[in-house]
Amino acid sequence: MARAQRETEEPQDAPSQALTPLSPPVQPPEEPRPPLVGRLSEVAGGLPAVISTMKHAWGEMGPVRGTRLLLKVNQKDGFDCPGCAWPDPGHRSVAEFCENGAKAVAEEGTKERVTPDFFRQWSVADLCAQSDYWLGKQGRLTHPMVLREGATHYTPISWDEAFALVAEELQALPTPDAACFYTSGRTSNEAAFLYQLFVRQFGTNNLPDCSNMCHESSGTALNETLGIGKGTVTLEDFDQAEAIFVIGQNPGTNHPRMLTTLQAAARRGCEIVSINPLPETGLNRFKHPQEVFQLLGSGTALNTQFLQVRINGDVALLQGLGKALLEREAEQPGTVVARSFVEDKTLGFEAYAENLRAVRWEDVVERSGVPREQILAAADLLARSERTIFCWAMGLTQHRNAVANIQEIVNLTLLRGSVGKPGAGVCPVRGHSNVQGDRTMGIWERPKAAFLDSLAREFAFEPPRHHGLDVVDTIHGMHAGRVQVFFALGGNFLSATPDTELTARALRRTRLTVHVSTKLNRAHLVHGRRALILPCLGRTEHDVQAGGPQFVTVENSMGVVHATRGAVAPASEHLLSEPMIVARLAAAVLGERSKVPWVSLVEDYDRVRELISKVIPGFEEFNRRVREPGGFSLPNGPREGRFTTASGKAHFTVHTMPREELEPGQLMMMTLRTHDQFNTTVYGLDDRYRGIRGGRRVVMMHPKDIAERGLAEGQVVDLTSHFQGEQRVARKFVVVPYNIPRRCAATYFPETNVLVPVDSYAEKSRTPASKSVVITVAPSVELAALVEGSTS
Ligand SMILES: Nc1nc2c(c(=O)[nH]1)N[C@H]1C(S)=C(S)[C@@H](COP(=O)(O)OP(=O)(O)OC[C@H]3O[C@@H](n4cnc5c(=O)[nH]c(N)nc54)[C@H](O)[C@@H]3O)O[C@H]1N2
Ligand SMILES: Nc1nc2c(c(=O)[nH]1)N[C@H]1C(S)=C(S)[C@@H](COP(=O)(O)OP(=O)(O)OC[C@H]3O[C@@H](n4cnc5c(=O)[nH]c(N)nc54)[C@H](O)[C@@H]3O)O[C@H]1N2
Ligand SMILES: [Mo]
What we know:
Layout: H1 2-7, E1 36-37, E2 43-45, H2 46-61, H3 63-70, H4 99-109, E3 113-114, H5 116-121, H6 124-128, H7 132-137, E4 140-141, E5 145-147, E6 155-156, H8 159-171, E7 179-183, H9 189-202, H10 216-226, E8 243-247, H11 251-254, H12 256-267, E9 271-275, E10 285-287, H13 292-296, E11 300-301, E12 305-307, H14 314-331, H15 339-345, E13 346-347, H16 349-358, H17 361-368, H18 372-384, E14 388-392, H19 394-397, H20 402-415, E15 425-428, H21 435-440, H22 449-459, H23 471-479, E16 485-489, H24 493-496, H25 500-508, E17 512-517, E18 530-535, E19 543-545, E20 548-550, E21 552-555, E22 560-564, H26 578-590, H27 598-601, H28 605-615, H29 622-625, E23 632-633, E24 650-651, E25 667-672, E26 677-678, E27 681-682, E28 692-693, E29 698-701, H30 703-708, E30 716-723, E31 726-737, E32 744-748, E33 773-779, H31 783-791
Parallel strand pairs: 2-10, 3-4, 7-16, 8-9, 8-14, 9-12, 13-24, 14-15, 16-17, 17-18, 25-32, 29-31
Antiparallel strand pairs: 1-28, 5-6, 5-18, 10-11, 19-20, 21-22, 22-23, 25-33, 26-27, 29-32, 30-31, 30-33
Helix pairs in contact: 2-3, 2-4, 3-4, 8-26, 9-26, 10-20, 14-17, 14-18, 14-20, 23-25
Bound molecules: ligand MGD (2 copies) and molybdenum atom.
């Protein structure tokens, strides 16, 4: 079997923590009952959203705490929603949250607790047998816990001893590069800034983060072409756009408040085009759950055009759009191409145009899967609209050619002169609520020289200049024994990363794994020789330090930096804030080596912000400006038509249309989020809009692809992925016929991360290609039969 084949690749010199058959499983267990499949929802929001909001909020937190917390979400004196990074409007309503934001708040605000008693009852092996949903439901972590070498259970440890333990392991390393420091995107600016400073003073740039798996492709693509790794629009631009393209994104589930913005745009006549392999409900019709009259009516129609692209058919489609625009320009010169913009502000137009002239329509249609008339209709809108915004998310960033996907969007934008003016621009819609801010604060394995120079100047030390490890490198590094300490500020590295089984073996080879977390997750259960869980305050909670009550800051998807203040008492008196954890750790590890007054800095977070304002451009007078209601916007050259590339111009780029790589019988699989999860956190077992309930192990397929394989609706199948001669298997998924293009399939993340090959990632950005997984589907083989088969 292919798994055995990978096993033999394991390096011989790695510390002996090899996976024995006795090691507990690393994937979530199968569900007891098959899911129920009903009809797709036609309308997003509405009464079901209100009911679900109340169920989660009151169910987890009780009516008093629940209502108190919800009324503080995204308010100017409240806390930033721990859900997505969609910005808040200037004028806030009393209830500035969505159904899924309420679930995120409830998940953190829950009344349940995971105490030392809980860990006494449950061994690590027993916890492994529980589902992700169950793990999350046990509640908030209350005490620092340690898993000592050879132990079966986590036991309590004091904070001092915990920091000393990390210091001891870090100091024993042959080189600082033998440690990796991961960050998930909920970490505040203050904690992130201190963390990267600590890591660089320790001596490494090994700062992999969730962004490596998320919008890294967007950052890479935009940096190269526009000179900034971020979007160029603000929320106000949506009020003026004439056309909005939503590509590879499911806002109804993942950015529900974006539907309010799209609804307002649609009501004033802005046209919305959705490009997606699936007819996602949120983009179809929307009833605002907080508009009482809306709850009963039929909702607002949102998209005017839906282009049902094949998985990874976007380069073909976007090139088709460009080709159509150039053909119109040839017919009526001077009407489509923004000549003066292209001449004054850009480079490379001729090469781009020449490439598109050579592109054949047959290839565009075949590889995109979208009929030519539909492409022409969308091009017609692009040609008419003077103000177009392009939004996208994971449907574009998680493919081998992800950077090309995004740069083809940039090409269209430049061709139409649709950037650097109101109502127009590019909008990568960020995931985690502060993932963008963490990057701004220096959480990056490939920091720019200018940033390191500022650190060096302000803190009088020589930061490491060589690039550090990203997520993919970190997995390989641990697996090869080169990385021996893994530290995570938030997140769930085991379940979020590709190649779950390999990542598990990698983590199990380390000397120490440490997780700063709010909730229990599978990454705590697949550990190094020793392991620590360090429980921290959540964003919803009061943060009081020696200098009094504190607030922290975050940056939303559109570059607005603002304050966030907790609204309720901490889940346990033993929790520390993230900035405090980082500061005490830094003091314990660096000791006399560091001149930074770590612990006194975090007595008052203004002191941390003072340092940020000295190091990071755009944060001048940080403490004053962040106290203004709504915060402040970071500078953004391209937004003002100033391109910050080396040439000072925006760049057109030329890309080869990717080829279809499927062999007969194979499908292209994308891994998606349900309506009931936040990444690896599972809130419930329903995907309401897609009509799938009570289970997550499903594979959505075109009815003809099901029939062609002799399969039937509801049948239990095994999925096998194929990559460079390697195979990976995930068992027991239920077949669901779905409105999806031929030879495409969809499953849920993280259950199918086991199928994503670690070395299948985007060119340049190295983002795992978790939306381009080549699979075959076959009737499930019972384990017994399998063993028989392999011994015969
Ligand atoms: N409630 C909730 N909110 C979230 C999250 C969550 O898990 N739950 N996660 C947060 C995070 S970290 C992120 S990054 C975002 C993720 O937000 P999304 O990117 O919306 O999340 P996905 O579920 O990965 O959905 C990808 C979408 O792209 C489409 N797609 C897949 N492949 C292709 C393709 O090849 N081409 C095109 N055109 N479309 C494609 C899919 O059909 C799907 O609609 O959401 C954030 N917000
Ligand atoms: N196959 C596949 N894989 C994917 C994706 C995909 O679409 N398909 N998406 C990728 C994307 S876009 C992303 S962003 C990554 C997400 O990767 P991660 O960010 O690593 O994962 P999360 O599930 O968001 O992390 C959840 C955990 O964070 C902890 N946590 C929550 N709040 C806090 C807090 O305030 N502080 C601290 N310290 N901890 C907290 C909790 O313990 C919780 O269990 O996954 C990636 N993986
Ligand atoms: Mo993300």
